[in-house]
Amino acid sequence: MADHSSGVAVAPGAAPSSASTAAVPVGVRTASALLLASLTGIVMFCSPLFVRVPASSVGHTSDAPLLFVVVLPLVVAIVLASFADGGMDSKALAMLGVLSAVNAALRPLGAGIAGVELVFFLLVLAGRVFGAGFGFVLGCTSMFASGLLTAGVGPWLPFQMLAAAWIGLGAGLLPRRMSGRAEIAMLVAYGVVAAYLYGFLMNLWFWPFALGGGTDLSFVPGDPLLDNLHRFVVYTVTTSTLGWDTGRAITNAVAIVVLGPAVLATLRRASRRASFGAG
Fold first, then answer.
1. For the chain, which terminal residue's Cβ has fewer other Cβ atoms within 10 angstroms, N or C?
2. Using CB atoms within 10 A of its CB, is residue 268 exposed (0-12), middle (13-18) or buried (19+)?
3. How many independent structural domains does the chain possess?
4. Host domain of residue 78
5. Per-residue pLDDT tens over the stretch 106-140
6. Which SS3 state, helix, strand or coil, does residue 141 take?
7. How many angstroms separate the CA atoms of 164 and 158, rounded?
């Protein structure tokens, strides 16, 4: 039997290698669109650190819609670029829709429980199987769909979409020559790091405007960048890392250990049967 996702022949009854190439590979056009989207996101996340006016007079309520308007066309551009590169077809789009819907349904299950968020482990596993471009788009669409489902649409949504997109992107860029327990261990480690990175980014988007002046953890407009970053790190560790982020990291680790092997096998089986990129 031929494994169409990697072009490697697989003997009947044998398990395909988990070290095969991504089911939806990234070509030059897709990589360029991913780079442009990521650079745009980095600028929007970090721009508040460079303001030199009182934090109370600026905010993300005005630039968040701009980011939303920029991100959505870039996501469409990534999908179209994947079509042009021959990596994504209608079957891959259907899988994207299914996984986005599943993630949107999973996210509310942890609502109100500190750090219990089930959306990220599936994002990591899907990014691992289907590749960086697929993982990026899945992160965006999952957060967008869950925001609509839970009425969680606000200035934070485009930042959530980008932060989740980077998690899916990173999962698709992990070394592919790993399998079995070593692969699960790598994904667990990545899931833990991704949990803290997501918390770091989501704190960064609002921290300069959250506390106002007068505290040791406040953003100080015009202060040296390293001084403000030091305050931000202390703020993140004391308010987020020891609570929500650690809960998210534990949830990711447990879900990947318990469900990871079965979900990876299911996704890879679906990829082989769909023969992404072959039709």
1. C
2. buried
3. 1
4. 23-274
5. 877 765 566 678 889 999 999 999 988 899 999 98
6. helix
7. 10
